[in-house]
Amino acid sequence: MKPFLPFLITLLLFCQSWAAARQVRVLSEKVEFIGKVNTKQRKSLILQNDSDQVKEYFLKFTQGNIGSSQSMKVCLDNNCYNPIKEPHRIKIKLNPGEIFTDLYIEFDLGIIATRGTFDLHFFNTENSRDSFIIEGVYNVEASNEDSFVHKDFELGGVYPNPTNRVAQLDYKIKNPSVSARVVVTSFIGNPIYDFRLDPVQYSLEINVTDLNPGVYFYTIIVDNKNLVTKKLFVNK
C-alpha cells in the first residue's frame, strides 16, 4: 500500500487543481447557426464565474472548418472582432460570481450551401490550465425562392447566387420522355449558354468565370415551351 500512497496523493492534488481551474462555465448550449444562404445570424452566449476571484480570459485560437464563403465575428457588447485575424482583441473580464451576458457571435452564412463546426478556445491570462471552449455548428441551406414545380419538371434553384465561379442548378425531370433545356441570356436577352438537361442527372454546373458582373436570366424550356425564367447574379 505504501508505494501506492504517493500516487494517490498526487492524483487527489491534481484533481483538486483541475477542479479549481474549471471555475468559469459556459451556460449556453452549443451555439447553432441554421439558415438559408445570403443571411446573417447573431447568437448570445452566457458565461458564469463560479469563483470568488476576478477572472480574465483571452481568445487564444479558433479551430474548425469554416468555409471560404462563411465569416464569423465575436462581439463584446457592440464591439465585434474577427476571431481569426484579431484574437488578441477578444478579452473577457469576469467579476466574482458574475454572469456575463455581453458575449455574442455573428455568423454570415455565405452564398454556398454547406455545414461545419468550430471551437473558440479561451484561456485565463494568468493560468493556462484555466480555460473554456465555446462549441458551434452551422448548417447553410440553399434558398428555395427559385424553386418551381411542373408536372414533368421540378426546379430546385441555382446556388450560390450570386456567384463568381460556378453556379449549380438542381433539377429533376419527372417525365423522361420530355426534352428539357436551360438557356442563359444576358440582361437584354442575348443568348449565352444553351444546355440540354440529362434526365438521369439531378444537377448542372454553369461556369460563369468568363461573364461580366451583372444580372443574367436562366430559362427552363421543356418540349420547346418556356416554363419559368429566373435571375442569376454574377459578381467578381
Overall CATH class of the largest domain: Mainly Beta
Q: Using DSSP, what is the number of strands?
A: 18
Helix content: under 10%
Helix-strand topology string: HEEEEEEEEEEEEEEEEEE
Strand order of the largest sheet: 1-3-8-5-6
The CATH architecture classification of the largest domain is: Sandwich
Whole-number total of structural domains: 2
Account of the protein in words:
Strands 1-3-8-5-6 form a five-stranded antiparallel beta sheet, with no helix packed on it. The termini are far apart. Helices cover 8% and strands 54% of the residues. A hairpin with a 2-residue loop joins strand 5 and strand 6. About 6% of the residues have low confidence. The protein is mainly β. It has two domains: 118 residues, Immunoglobulin-like (Sandwich); 87 residues, Sandwich (Immunoglobulin-like), CATH 2.60.40.1930.
List descriptors.
five-stranded mixed β-sheet; 236 residues; 1 helix; elongated; five-stranded antiparallel β-sheet; Immunoglobulin-like; mainly beta
Question: Which secondary structure elements does this structure contain, and how are they paired or packed?
Answer:
Elements: H1 4-21, E1 24-26, E2 31-36, E3 40-49, E4 55-64, E5 71-76, E6 79-81, E7 91-94, E8 99-108, E9 114-124, E10 131-141, E11 148-149, E12 153-159, E13 166-173, E14 180-185, E15 191-196, E16 203-207, E17 214-222, E18 225-234
Parallel strand pairs: 2-10
Antiparallel strand pairs: 1-3, 3-8, 4-7, 4-9, 5-6, 5-8, 9-10, 11-12, 12-13, 13-16, 14-15, 14-17, 17-18
